[in-house]
Amino acid sequence: MDYMPDSLYQAEGFLYSAGLGFILGMIYDFFRAAFFLFTGNEKRLAMVRDLIYTSVCLFLTFIFLLVMCSGKVMLYAIVGEIIGAVVYAVTVSSLLFVKIKPLLGKFRRMILKICSAMNDFFTKICKQGKKLINFST
Fold first, then answer.
1. Are 86 and 28 spatial neighbours (Cβ–Cβ below 8 Å)?
2. For a tag on the chain, would you pick the N or C end, based on fewer CB atoms within 10 A?
3. How far is CA 3 from CA 6, 12, 74, 79, 122, in A?
4. Sign of torsion, CA 37 43 48 51?
């Protein structure tokens, strides 16, 4: 009975788990950007964002361990995932989100202006409709 996979399989699993960690870092940045776009503040609803992200991470890690390690929790897979996430956070995320955050702020202001204009338009239509209904009765 063989409990430990061979070293080539472990190395492959380690690289795949590092890739998964990198992808999970990208998903976290997507959540950060989405919540910043909707709330205008990166810190608002941070607990909700982190709970959603943790749930997604747990699910994806479970599926990964189920497929790659036959459902066994292997240290090399967990360490690889952590290393991949840290590499993403230190390299890509730190540079990417600093550049994207001002663009997201401008995009958010543009969306708020459009929504405000649509709100004003529909408010005027409702007022005209009320006048028309009151006039006809």
1. no
2. N
3. 10, 17, 11, 19, 67
4. positive
For the beta carbon of residue 25, count every other beta carbon within 10 angstroms: 20
pLDDT tens-place values along the chain, 137 residues long? 466 678 888 888 899 999 999 999 999 988 888 888 777 776 778 888 889 999 999 999 999 999 988 878 888 889 999 999 999 989 888 888 778 777 877 887 888 888 888 888 888 888 777 776 776 55
For the entire predicted model, the pTM comes to: 0.71
Give the whole-angstrom CA distance, residue 131 versus residue 21: 60
